[in-house]
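Hi F.,

I've been meaning to write this up properly since the lab meeting, where we talked about keeping a consistent format for the predictions we share between groups. The idea is simple: the sequence comes first, exactly as it goes in, then the C-alpha cells exactly as they come out, then a line or two of notes. No screenshots and no reformatting. I'm using this chain as the first example so we have something concrete to point to.
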Amino acid sequence: MRLTVVAPLLAVFAVLAAAPARAQEARPASPPATPGPAAPPPAPGPAVAPRDVITLDEAVRTALEHQPRLRQVRATTDAAGARTDQALAPLLPQVDLEGQVQRRGGSGSASGGSAASGLGFTTATTTWSAGASARQALVDVPQLERWRAAGASAEAQRSTARATEQQIVAQARTAWFAARAARDLVGVAEDTLANQEAHLRQVEAFVQVGTRPAIDLAQARADRANAQVALIRAGNDYVVTRAQLVQAMGIDRGADFDLGDGALPAVPGEDGPVDPLLAEALAARPELAALGSQARSDVLARDAARAGWLPTLSAGAAVTGIGPALDNLDRGWNATLTLGWSIFQGGLTRAQTREADANLGATEAQTDVLRQQVRVEVEQARAAVQAARAALDAAGEALVNARERLRLAEGRYQAGAGSIIELGDAQVAATAAAGQRVQAEQSVSSTRAQLLLALGREVR
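Output, unedited:
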C-alpha cells in the first residue's frame, strides 16, 4: 500500500530533478537574483543600470592614455631630450646684446664755485654705451662628446619608456583576465546555488513522505548555506578584481562596470622551439636596447673625459659704442681668437675617465644579467602557455565527467540507491571542475600576455 502512494510522488520528483541539469547547461551573462526566500544578497558594489561594459581593447587603450607611471616615464624622456639640447647649446653661436646708461657727478674747487653759496659746485655727466658680441666654439672636443653622450642617454630613456609601456599593457591585460575569471566564477557559484536549491526541494519532499531521513534535510540545508556563502565571496572577489583593473588602467572611477568577452589569440611560435623566440626577444626587448644606448653613452662620456687634456679654440667679435648721447656715440669693434688648454686640473680628468670606465663596466655587466634573464623569461612564458593550454583541455574533460557524475548521483538519490553524502560530493566535484575550467581559460590568455611581454613585441 505504501509503494502505491510513493510511486506517483517519485514521478513528480523526477520532473523536479531535471532542474539542476538545466541550470548546469545554461548560465546568464549577468548574475540574476537567486529565487527563493533564502537567496543571498547581490554581489557587493553599487548597482548601476545600465552598467558600462569594458572590453580588453578598451582596458589596454585606457591604460596607455591614463596610467600615471606611463605619464611619468614620458616626462622623464622629455627631460632627457632637453638635457641633450642643453649639451648642444655651447657648441652653437652665442650672441649677446648690452646697453648701459651711466650718470656721474663730482664737486669742484671754491674758486670756480657759486658766489651765492660759497660752498663749491657740483658737476654731473651722463654716458651712454651699447654693444653687441658674438662668439663661436671652433674646437671643443670635450663638449662635443658630452653632447653625443647626452643623446645616447636620451635614446636609452626612450627605450625604457617603451619597456614601461609594454609592462603596463601586460598588467592591464592580466588584470582584465583576472576580473573576467572572477565574473565567471560568480556564474559558477550561481549555478551551484541553483542546484543546491533544487536538491533542497527534492530532499524536503522525500523527507515529508518518509523515504529519506531528516538528516538528509539538514545536510541539504547546510549545502545550500555553503553555496550562498560561496556566491557572496565570489561576488566580493569580482568587485576586488574590478578595482584592481581600475588601478591597472590608471583611472579614478568606481568599479561599477561589467566586462565583455575577449581572449588573446595564439602567439606565433608558442608551439615551436624556444631558440627562434629567444632570438626575437634579444633583438626586440626595449630593456636591452636601453642598456645598449646607455653603454654607448658611457663610452662617449669616457671620450669626453679623456678630451679634457685637449685644447679648445673659439672665436669672437664685438661692436661697441660710447658717448654722452645716443646720437653721439664713438663706435668701435674688436675680434678675438682664443686658444685654451688646461695643462693640469689636479687630476680631475684622470678621475673622470676612471668613473666613466667603471660606469661602462657596470652597464656591460647589467646587460649580461638581463640577457640571461630574458632567456629565462621566454622559456618560462612559453612553457606556461603550453601548460595552460594542456590544463584547459584537461579541465574541460574533468568538467564533462563531473557533470555526468552529478547527473548520475542525482538519479541514484532520486531512486533511493544513493546517499545525500554521495550527492553532495558530486556537487562539490562539479563546482570545483567548473571553477578549474574558468581558471584554466584565464590562465591561457594571461600566460600569452606574459609571453608577448617576454618577447618584447610591440603593443600597437
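Notes:
Residues 2-23+33-91+143-308+346-455 form a domain with the Outer membrane efflux proteins (OEP) fold (CATH 1.20.1600.10).
The chain has one domain: 2-23+33-91+143-308+346-455.

If this format works for you, I'll send the rest the same way.

G.
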